[in-house]
Each structure stands twice: as structure tokens, then as C-alpha cells.
Amino acid sequence: MSIIYLGVMSPHTWFKIGHLIGLFVWIGGMFATYWLLRMHASAPKEMHDRFTVMERALALMMDIALMLVIACGLYMALADSPNMFQLPKAKWLHAKLTVVVLLMLPVHGIVRKKIRVFPQGDLRPPAQWLWSMFLVGMLVSVYLVERQPF
User: Fold this and answer.
1) Which of 6, 7, 56, 78 is 20 to 30 A removed from 108 (C-alpha atoms)?
2) What's the confidence (pLDDT) of residue 55?
3) What is the distance in angstroms between the CA of the first residue and the CA of the last residue of the chain?
4) 120: enclosing H helix or E strand
């Protein structure tokens, strides 16, 4: 049996780990909350309080995870390489940030607003296009990070 020694990891590596863990938790929370809101919209009245508690708990987890993603991502983009945002080498990063800001973060905000208005009786489920927009944003973002095509 051998023990693998990883050595001392750089701060960049720790922030990358934090970024990925936050990303997994945020995306998982978004998936769960979106579908929970859709079920809540058609649930019997006696279940509304339970759904509200679950949605609020997931929303708090999503918010914390998103803050971790943003903080670690900004650290990685700025701390190790202050020129990271300079073109032409960072075109993929500009594209990724554009996708995240225009496709993914608005969905987070809309889902959070739905969580706020559902207990007040506005039980319209989130639109299906929100789900598609979030998935497209996630797929494009992963592609841009993995391939860095520009």
C-alpha cells in the first residue's frame, strides 16, 4: 500500500478547487430549485409550506456557492496573472464571462425572485426557456474553459 504525497499545493490550485466545488454546488442547486419550483406550482395547498422551506434552504446554498465561484474565479483571473484580461490571449475568458453574465446569472436571479413570490401566492412556474438558457450557458462555458478556442 503506497501513500501518495501531493506536496504543498499553490494558492492557485486551492482556488481552482474552490471554484469547481462552488460550481458543482451552484449548478446542482439551480437544477434542484428549478424543478422544485415547477413541482411547487402544481402541488396541493397543504404542501406549499414544505416546498417553501426547501426552496429557501436550496436558495441559500446556491447563493453561498455562487459567491464562492465568483470569488475564486476572480482570484484566479487577477492574482496570478494581472494581464489575464488582456486581449488577444484571453478571448476565451471574455467569451466565458459574457456567457455567464448574460445566460446563467439572470436565470439565478429569476429563480431567486420566484422563490420570494411563491409564498405570497404567485404560483406561476418558471418558464421552460429558463432551463434551456441555463443549460446552453453551462455547456458553452465548459467548452470555452476546456478548449480555449480563440
Assistant:
1) 78
2) 94
3) 44
4) none
What residue segments make up the domains of the chain, in order of their start? 11-147
Query: pLDDT by residue (tens digit) across 70-83?
Result: 999 988 888 756 66
What stretch of H or E contains 24? helix 11-41
Query: In angstroms, rounded to a whole number, what is the distance separating the alpha carbons of residues 41 and 51?
Result: 10
pTM above 0.90, yes or no: no
| CA-closest candidate to residue 30, choices 124, 141, 138, 120 | 138
Rg of the chain over all Cα atoms, to the nearest angstrom: 19
Task: Pull the grid cell for residue 150.
Answer: 480563440
Q: What is the mean pLDDT of residues 35-48?
A: 92
Quick check: 67 and 23 in contact, CB under 8 A? Answer: no
Q: How far apart are CA 119 and CA 111, in angstroms?
A: 14
Instruction: Report in angstroms the alpha-carbon separations of 40 from 60, 89, 141, 145.
Output: 18, 46, 30, 35
Q: How far is CA 47 from CA 12, 43, 50, 53, in A?
A: 45, 6, 5, 10
